[in-house]
Amino acid sequence: MKHKGKIFEKAIRNSHLPITKIAQLAGYSSRNMYNLFEKEHLPFSLFVKVGKIIGYDFAEDLPEITKFLMINEPEGVYQLESKYKEKYFDLLEKHLALKEEFDEFKSNIQPVLYKKTPIKRVINKKTE
Question: For the chain, what are the domain ranges?
Fold first, then answer.
């Protein structure tokens, strides 16, 4: 099982915001925030609250948080859905561009691959 306090701490420290400010906005004292880093189990509501403050999606580290979001924060699910929809369309555009490149390559290489050499020429070259 993942140590949720360490995941929580890493995200907060990577946000480059002062921990005291994050604690204040989340309704905790600085000391309480540091104590949370040491706890193995933390409530998902805390991840959601702090995630909004620091602009971080904890669903990447804790996939099980999506169930919590679906029940308690339906707007969070729509944000996740739009995020993945955007990724899907980006990948689809890349796929179509690669397909076009491949089709162009294939049309250029086919005449070379399937070039028919008359049999007489091959036989004559061998005898010479």
Answer: 1-72, 74-128
